[in-house]
Amino acid sequence: MLEILRESSVLAVVGLSSKPDRAGYYVPAYMQRAGYTILPVNPALDHALGVRAFADLQDVPQPVDCVLIFRRPEFVPAVVEQAIAIKARYIWMQLGIRSEPAAQKARAAGLRVIMDACIMVEHRRLANRLDEARRGMS
């Protein structure tokens, strides 16, 4: 987890919500405040968190380090296919989301995978180590 948080700066958030009380909104908002570039991926949104939203990963016009998934498990395989196609480096399935077949496919394509973990919780837990790494003290 530390590697993904340290090596990622651009997070494409698939399933980003427009509802501030949902994890699909406040978790990416937290990550944005922590300094990550957030690229919302949701065909129902034009903009979110002050930036343009994209219908799917293949519409994102810049390289993506990590694909953060806020979709039900049955949708994860299609997201992973797109993540592989855009050459993302990491897949992070948010808390409560698991898809072992999709994870295996991602790993076979060279992506690192986290399942069933909250990126915000892990960022907070690892904040001191991330700060040390950024200062070159790791």
Would you kindly provide a written description of the structure presented here, covering whatever features stand out?
The protein has 138 residues and is of the alpha/beta class. The chain has one domain: NAD(P)-binding Rossmann-like Domain (Rossmann fold, 3-Layer(aba) Sandwich), CATH 3.40.50.720. It is built from 6 helices and 7 strands; from the N terminus they run H-E-H-E-E-E-E-H-E-H-E-H-H. The strands form 2 sheets. Strands 2-1-5-6-7 form a 5-stranded parallel beta sheet, with helices on both faces. Strands 3-4 form a two-stranded antiparallel sheet. Helix 4 (100-108) links the parallel strand 6 (90-93) and strand 7. The longest helix is centred in the N-terminal third of the chain and has 11 residues, at 23-33. It starts with a helix and ends with a helix.
